[in-house]
Amino acid sequence: MNSMKEKNILKDLFKFTKFSIASIVSAIIDLLIFTFISSVIFPEVSAYSLFIATTVARVLATLFNFFLSKHFVFKIQIETKLALIKYYFLAVMKMLLSWLLVLVLYKILSYNETVIKIPVDCILFFVGYILQKIWVFKNKESLSEKQE
How many CA atoms does the CB half-sphere of 57 hold within 13 Å? Predict the structure, then answer.
């Protein structure tokens, strides 16, 4: 019984590690695109410029992350269309929260928006993992479980 519990804990830890790696790569893509757009295309900080930079960066980074999560992290066999709809619903909610929190914290702190975005998105990362695991990529039997 204990060995089964330990095996499940190790399995979850390994899955979380893969999720973290995929998310770090996606976050780097997101941050680079966000920084480029907010610094080069819209050098004046405004609600509009932060929204555009956040939206474009998030759409590109989440598309990349979806396929990594589906095939590399959760190894799930579910209809891509349904999973993608759930994934993007979650991504949009996280994006809006990121935008609003960065905007509010920028107005309160008058600090660099990219520096503010990092801790905001770190918190949203943990929320996203939990919701992806229990809702977006929830399946009775994943590919990794079939292979065992």
Answer: 30
1, pLDDT greater than 70? no
* Spatial distance between the Cα atoms of 85 and 53, rounded to a whole number of angstroms: 22
pTM, full prediction: 0.69
CB 111 within 8 A of CB 57: no
Q: Which of 88, 73, 51, 79 is nearest to 133 (CA)?
A: 73
DSSP for 4-34 reads HHHHHHHHHHHHHHHHHHHHHHHHHHHHHHH
Contacts of 66 (CB under 8 A, 6+ apart): 83, 84, 87, 88
Burial class (CB in 10 A: 0-12, 13-18, 19+), 113: buried
The span from the CA of 129 to the CA of 64, in Å, is 16
